Amino acid sequence: MNISRVILAAVVVSTDAFSSFHGSSVSQHVSTSTSSLTMKVFDWKRREADESAINDAENFVFTLDNLKPAPGSRHRKKRKGRGIAAGQGATCGFGMRGQKSRSGRPTRAGFEGGQQPLYRRLPKFVGKPMGPGHSKTVYNLIKLDELNGAAEGSTVNFASLFESGDITKSKVGIHKVVTGKKEFTAKGLIVQAHAFTSSAQTAIEGAGGKCELLSPTTGAVLEPVAA
Fold it and tell me: What's the pTM?
């Protein structure tokens, strides 16, 4: 009799403990499921900033002193070799061994491990070399319609066109005259440049003008372009 009472009491205690535990877990689950999610701003200096004025695009005026990147668009630089906690410690992401883990550049540009590289697999064109050690001459292009504002019989080059405002500044120091999209209407111009296309030369000479080649190093007039 006493044994049955002890067993019954143990069953009641275990049932109460299970119900209390189950109820608390359910309540915790409900409370967490109803919580609102917020997007994390990675820029910690702007997490608490009030940017409601910036979001009003119709009334807010952007100036040089209030421009700033969007939150999370800029990351701090990756610190390598500063311990395993950084994720790029010790080997700095280059692995333990191998050619690509050594100091210095392991292979040259274009190297493909010994197989035929791309610049040797592609077909070549006469007069247009490709591959390492070759480069092409890059010109600043002057269109024929940009010469229309010059006076008849005047000498035209990049400096005179830039001074008159017909063209803008150039990143390269040598210039080439090419045919533009608009019609060439100037007459009797002496055009000086470092190169001419055949169609541009024909148009200039057809309008009573002359083409003069310039030296790419000194800028001096070399000779009139042969027709």
Answer: 0.44
